[in-house]
Amino acid sequence: MMRKIALLVSAVLGLALAAPAASAAPAACAPVDWGSGDKQLFESQAPHMTDLRAGRHECYDRLVFDISGAPGGYAARYVPEIVQDPSGNPIPVRGGAGLQVTTYSATYDENFDPTYEYDDPMELVDVTGYATFRQVVMAGSWEGTTTIGLGVRARLPFRVLMLPDRLVVDVAHTW
């Protein structure tokens, strides 16, 4: 009888140890005060844009413009449609809203040699599976500025950060 109890206890303990632990629920994202209105800052013409990349975070999606020096400034705003610079032709993007981001740095140097190259202007960064981002498109690099169109799920709060060698755009997943 004691042996049966010991086997039963061992079996129960074995099942308890083998069962996957309930994963902790992700921490709720704190409300953001970023807003969805226009944001801009101009300090000077910057060096050149060298790369564009994206990242997923728990509470926001991030787009990073790598710059070969300190960013000179930016203009970022939700627009009814992304337009190509300088032609003004509309560029369709996936998602419920379009965020147009301009950095005061070109994708070419003083000899017009490219400093940022891409394969497909309609898919600059693969944002498949992102919570907020839907598409990243090239809208033009003209007269020392570069404009990127960002298709997002909806008009959500965003912020823009200037760091020593990059410009960062974060779009929150929720209000």
Quick check: average pLDDT? 85
What is the overall number of helices? Answer: 1
What is the CATH level 1 assignment? Mainly Beta
Biggest sheet strand order reads 1-4-7-9-8
Estimated radius of gyration: 23 Å
Proportion of residues in helical segments: under 10%
CATH topology category name: Immunoglobulin-like
Return the structural class. Answer: mainly beta
Strand percentage, roughly? 35-45%
Q: Give the topology string: H per helix, E per strand.
A: HEEEEEEEEEEE
Tell me the major beta sheet: 5 strands, antiparallel
Backbone shape = globular
- What is the end-to-end distance? 62 Å
Query: How many individual β-strands?
Result: 11
Topology of this protein?
Layout: H1 2-18, E1 39-42, E2 49-56, E3 60-67, E4 73-79, E5 82-83, E6 90-91, E7 97-103, E8 133-142, E9 145-152, E10 158-163, E11 166-172
Task: Give a written overview of the molecule.
- InterPro entries: AMIN-like.
- Pfam families: AMIN-like.
- Keywords: Signal.
- This is AMIN-like domain-containing protein.
- The chain has 175 residues and is mainly beta.
- The protein has a single domain, classed as Immunoglobulin-like (Sandwich).
- Helix content is 10%, strand content 39%.
- The protein contains 1 helix and 11 strands.
- The strands form 3 sheets. Strands 1-4-7-9-8 form a 5-stranded antiparallel beta sheet, with no helix packed on it. The chain has a 4-stranded antiparallel beta sheet with strand order 2-3-11-10, with no helix packed on it. Strands 5-6 form a two-stranded antiparallel sheet.
- It is globular.
- The N terminus is likely disordered.
